Amino acid sequence: MLNRYPLWKVVLILFVIGLGVVYALPNLYPEDPAIQVSGSRASIEVTNRDQARIEQALNQAGIAFFGSQLENQSLLIRFADNQAQTAAQSVIQQAAGDNLVVALNQAPTTPDWLSSLGAKRINLGLDLRGGVHFQMEVDMEAAVAQQLEAEAGEVRRLLRSERLRFRQVTLSDQGLRVQMASEEDLVQAQRLLQRELRDFDFEANPTTLRLHLTLKEQMVRDIEDYAIEQNLITLRNRVNELGVAEPLVQRSGRNRIVVELPGIQDTAAAKRVLGATANLQFRLEARQNEDPINVERFNFRDEHGRSALLERDIITTGNHVTNASIGFDENNRAQVNVRLNSQGGRLMSQATRPNVGRAMAVIFIEHKTRSQFVEQDGELVEQRENFVEQGIISLANIQSELGSSFRITGNFSVQEANELAMLLRAGALAAPMYFVEERTIGPSLGQTNIEQGVLSIQIGLALVVLFMLIWYRLFGVFACVALTANLVLLVALLSVLGATLTLPGIAGIVLTLGMAVDANVLINARIKEEMYHRGLSPQNAIHAGYEKAFSTILDANITTFLVAIILFSVGTGPVKGFAVTLSLGLLTSMFTAIMVTRLQVNWVYGQRRVERLSI
User: How far apart are CA 119 and CA 441, in angstroms?
Assistant: First the structure.
C-alpha cells in the first residue's frame, strides 16, 4: 500500500529520535565552577580529615561553597561563580599541603541516570568555553646537567676501556672534572677524550692531575633547544593520553611552555601528569666493599624506610622507552611491561649479560614544586620552591640477559602502574618543568561572539521555519518537526562522539540547518509538480515526490560530504570543527528530511482517500 511504513520501521525511527533526545539532554545542564583536590601521586588518597581541614579554611576565609564531596580518591568542591573559585584556590592550596594537588575544574550537573547511560555534554573549544591555562618553565640548567650526567658515564666507560686509572668523574659548571691517578694517565686521557668527545673544550692541570671538560656554547644552546622541543612533543603526547579535545601546547619565550586545556573532568590529574618528569634510571646494585666514590644511596618509594647502595653508572633511562603497558604477574600483582628502542636494548643487554644474578634497581625521578605562603606587606604571597624527589621503585635480581623487552615489578597499586605506564608511553621529559602560573581563561573570542553565534542559529532556524510554514503549509510543519529532530540528533552525535564544538562548528550547524530544509524543499516541489502538472492523485504524487527527489538529495549530500572530508583532512583545529559538524549534520539531515518527514506524511495522509494536499 502506498505511503505506509511497516511497524518495524516506525518503531526504529521513533527509537532513534528518542535516543537522540536522551543523549542531547545533558547539554541543558550547565556546569559548576569547582576546585579538585587529589594526591600528588596515584597512591595518595584525599581523606575525610583533609576534607574537614579544607572546609574549615574556606569557612574561616568567608568563601561560600557547596557540594563538597569525596569520590575516586579526590575531593571536588563546587562554587557559585568563578570569582569564588579563584579566591578559594590559594586558600585551599595553603590548607592542602605538599602531598595534594589543587586544580581548577568544572563540575558536571548531569543527573546520575543520564550519566549511567553514558550521556555527556558536548566538548566546547577554548573559543566557546575557555578552560585552564598552565604556564610551565623548563629548567635549562637541569637539562644541561642531565646531559653532563650521561657524558660522565661515557667518560668513565672510555677510560676503563683503555685501562686508564682515574679517581672520580664529577660535574662542574657546564662541564666535567676528571681526577686522574698519574700525569701519564692524564695525558693519555686528554688525547683519548679529545678524539671521542668533540662537543667539549679541554684544559689539563698537571699539578692537580685534573682534566676539565667544558661544553661548547653551541652545544649548550643545542641542549636547551632540544629540551624545549622534546618537552613540547612529550606534553602533546601526555595531553593526548588524557583525551583532552582541542588543546593548545606551544612555546612561550626562551624557556617556557603554555598549555591551555578546554575544561576537562580531572584537571588535578592533568596537572599531576603534565608536571611529572616521570623519568627512570636503571642501575646495578653496588657490590660489597665498592669504592664509596662510585656508589650512591637511594631510598625506596614506600613507607618502610628502606634504602640500597647503587652504582653511579646509569645503564639506561626512560628516554629510550618506546612503549609501556600495565600487566599482572603470576601472583596477580600489578607490573609495568616496558619496551626499549634499539639503543636502549643494546645498553641493557651489555650491562646485564655479565651481571646475571646481581640485583638491578629502577629509580623513579620526579621534579616537583613546593608552595609556601609568606606574609608580605600584610598580604599572603605564594612562593614556590623547586625540589627533586627520587627513589627506588623496584630492586630485583637479574635472572637472565635482558634486551629490549622486560618488566618492572614492585609494590605497585593498579593506579600507580597505570600512571607510570602512561607517562612512559608519552615519553620522558628532556628536562624538568615547574608550574609558574595557573589560571582559568575565558572564551578567547569573547562572550559577545558566542552569544551572537547562538543567536545566529536561532534566527536562522526561525526564518527557515517561517518560510516553510508560509510556503508549504502542513508539509512545512512536517519539515519543521524534522528540522528540530535533526538539530537534536546532531547535538546528540556531537556529545556521544566526543567531538569539540568551536565557533566555526556553530557555523557548520547553521549551514546544516539550511541544507536540511533544502532537501524538503526539493521533495515538496516535486510533489507539487507531480500533482499539479502531471495530474497524479495526491497519494501517487507523495510517493513519486519522495522517490524521484531522493537521487538528487543523495548526490548533493555526497558532494558536500566529500568537501567536508577534505576540510577535515587538510584543515587546522577550527576548520576541523566546521568539517565535523557539517559532515555529521549531513548524515542526520538525510535521515530526518526523508525518513522523519515521510513518517509524518504517512500518519496524516496514508491509508485514506485524499482529495487535496495542504502544500
Answer: 26
| Integer CA distances (angstroms), 125 to 87, 262, 267, 600, in order | 25, 6, 16, 37
Alpha-carbon distance 234 to 22, whole Å?
A: 38
Query: Tell me: the pLDDT tens digits for 27-64?
Result: 888 888 888 888 766 667 788 888 888 888 888 888 88
Instruction: Work out the average pLDDT over 167-190.
Output: 88
- 7-26+446-605: which CATH topology? Multidrug efflux transporter AcrB transmembrane fold (1.20.1640)
Name the β-bridge partners of 368: 387
Quick one: pLDDT at residue 442?
57
Do the domains spanning 32-107 and 141-219 agree at the CATH topology level? Answer: no
CB-count burial class (<10 Å; 0-12, 13-18, 19+) for 533: exposed
Largest interatomic CA distance in the chain:
116
What is the CATH code of the structural domain delimited by 276-441?
Answer: 3.30.1360.200
Rounded CA-CA distance 527/543 in Å is 8
- Residue 447, classified by CB atoms within 10 Å of its CB into exposed (0-12), middle (13-18) or buried (19+), is exposed
Which class in CATH covers the domain with range 141-219? alpha beta
Q: Report the sign of the C-alpha dihedral through residues 238, 368, 311, 313, in that order.
A: positive
Nearest to 3 by CA among 413, 367, 545, 567: 545
Of 1, 473, 465, 518, the C-alpha closest to 526 is: 518
pLDDT class for 287, splitting at 50, 70, 90? confident
Q: Which CATH architecture has domain 32-107?
A: 2-Layer Sandwich (3.30)
Sequence-distant (≥ 6) Cβ neighbours of residue 378 within 8 angstroms: none
Report the distance separating Cα 108 and Cα 409, nearest Å: 38
Tell me the average pLDDT of the chain: 81
List the end-to-end C-alpha distance of the chain, in Å, as a whole number.
22
Residue 370 has phi, psi (to 5 degrees) of -110, 125
* Range in 305-309, 318-322, 547-551 with the lowest mean pLDDT: 318-322
Residue with cell 566546521: 578
Residue 386 Rama label (left phi>0; alpha psi -120 to 50; beta): beta
Q: Which residues fall within 8 angstroms of residue 222, CB to CB, at 6 or more apart?
A: none
* 128-161 confidence digits (pLDDT tens): 666 677 888 888 888 888 788 878 888 888 888 8
Is 574 exposed, middle or buried, given 0-12, 13-18 or 19+ CB atoms closer than 10 A? middle
Strand pairing class (210-215; 200-205): antiparallel
User: How many other β-carbons are positioned within 10 Å of the β-carbon of residue 281?
Assistant: 19
Number of H helices, E strands in the chain: 16, 23
> Whose grid coordinates read 578546554?
262
Q: Where are the domains of the chain?
A: 7-26+446-605, 32-107, 141-219, 276-441
Q: With 0.85 as the threshold, say if the pTM is over it.
A: no
Task: Identify which has the larger pLDDT, 40 or 196.
Answer: 196
